[in-house]
Amino acid sequence: xxxxxxxxxxxxxxxxxxxxxxxxxxxxxxxxxxxxxxxxxxxxxxxxxxxxxxxxxxxxxxxxxxxxxxxxxxxxxxxxxxxxxxxxxxxxxxxxxxxxxxxxxxxxxxxxxxxxxxxxxxxxxxxxxxxxxxxxxxxxxxxxxxxxxxxxx
Length: 153
Description:
This protein has helices spanning 2-17, 62-74, 130-136, 140-147, and strands at residues 21-32, 35-42, 49-50, 53-55, 76-80, 86-94, 97-113, 125-129. Helix content is 29%, strand content 40%. By secondary structure, it is α+β, with helices and mostly antiparallel strands. The protein has 4 helices and 8 strands; from the N terminus they run αββββαββββαα. A hairpin with a 2-residue loop joins β6 and β7 (97-113). Strands 1, 2, 3, 4, 5, 6, 7 and 8 form an 8-stranded mixed beta sheet that branches.
């Protein structure tokens, strides 16, 4: 709870000083034996467990950009929802500068997982049940968004 409050306050402080950057992210998932599993990846800089995300792409709708990020960062393709599950707010560090970002997170039901992918040398990926994902994800807001998939069929 304290981490959520601190993150929210940090975001508000940074957002007052610079424009909020909009991004799109995917929560890759599959239903295995009636249980939802999500695909986590590590961030490049810190190695923390997150979901694929990135900047909006010209010529693509936000949900399509989220699917493209999942392909590049996690090596998966699938059916992406057109509506986000919610938005995740975080702060991106670029050297000594910080930038607030707000990421619309879209569900992506995985239909294909590639053995090789663009960022495989920069990231690890890991399938996790929702309970394990809640423990591994560094940000509790990401875990809350993942939990929204618990009733997926």
